[in-house]
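How it folds:
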Amino acid sequence: MSIWSEEEWAEPWAEPAAPALPLTASQKGLWVTHRLGPRQLHNIVVTVALDPAIGTPRITAALAAVLAVQPALRMRVGDPLTGTGLIEEPLAPADLPFEDIGRCGAAETRAAVARLGAHPFDLARGPLLRFAHTRPDGRSVLVMAVHHLVFDGFSLQPFVDDLAGFLNAPGPAVPGDRLRAAREARLLGEHSAQAAAEGSAATARRAAELAGSVAGTAPASLGGATAPAADGGDRAARRLRWEPDPAARAAIRSAHRALGLTGYEFFTAVYATALHAHTGDPAVVLGSPFLARHTFGALGLCGFFVNTLPLVLRPGAAPSFARFATEQAAPAVTFVRDRAKVPLPHLLSLLRPERAAHRTPLFNCVLAVQDAPVCTAPVRSVRVHGNDTAEYDLWLGITDTPGGGLALELEHATAAVPVPEADALWAAFREVLRTALDRPAAARTPAPG
């Protein structure tokens, strides 16, 4: 049976969970930045391609069922002062925040993505998501905007699995009470485990170790980004996308495997080298999201259970890309991953960096590497979109897609990293990547400029 088949082993979890639960330290930090920055800053926007034969009533019923068994998607902030979240009761299909656009063109679908992505969620009022369904050119596209407080990149797979399961149900998409109770108990268990860990001596020790690795470094010197209010809070974004052809994808995979690296370690080295070549900074600080779920039961849940933490790298000290990647980047990734359960607010309390309401402290460049969800019919594919707002000054997203595909995206806050500079950085990244593929052992790390 599938690891996610909770109905087969839900009995020990069948007691209903309390509707209130403690917010995690990361959720509290996100609540603060939500209050201070643009309201759409933390919106995650997803399009899900569905079998066109599935009717809209079936889709809304399946979505209502998904929300019923994914309690985080019914969560809102109850009291930010005490750090309490509340789980609302399930919604009927007719009460979902759902817009049925119907037959339209591609432009209308893009407009729906933009409109939902810009939705100003009130974290005290749930649900913290919105849906729209379009049928562009005979296709079926479900658009979802969900606030990061209740959803992360690792939530895509449980969401897609549940959606496909309810769409495939032989009868009405009705969630079982046992499954709902089990999921609510698991969510409460995960939040309780995180709350307990946040005050533990082990977390304090790991936070101090991470803080020691970051102390004395600064965010990348991009444009006016080193001045705390250089961009005045303008977070308008531009996103570039590149999908390598099959030959390039094969070369990338061959290169990192030849070096004994994971794809994540390899791209960490490429990105850091490109930033060093562009800025000349002796130390490059990259933020990167790490899975930080504490309990096994949380693996099948949607929620916000990642910590974005800093890695410090010094590409200029390495004699070649290969040496830098294997001797510095890979160990740095392991070091931070071993401390992935340290919430970023713990680091900030130790390091006390200069703060700006519209910018994450410690790092302004982020690398996010993730696999796209594996889809089961009638779900055909999933894609995450930008929402024209930049959470970070510079963000690099790398997604392995089903069937061996690869998508690389660079997003920048245009006020902090002007278009010419972003284009130069994108070119530097692709040049370093070519070097890493062609002559990783012979080439020295490029000099700045």
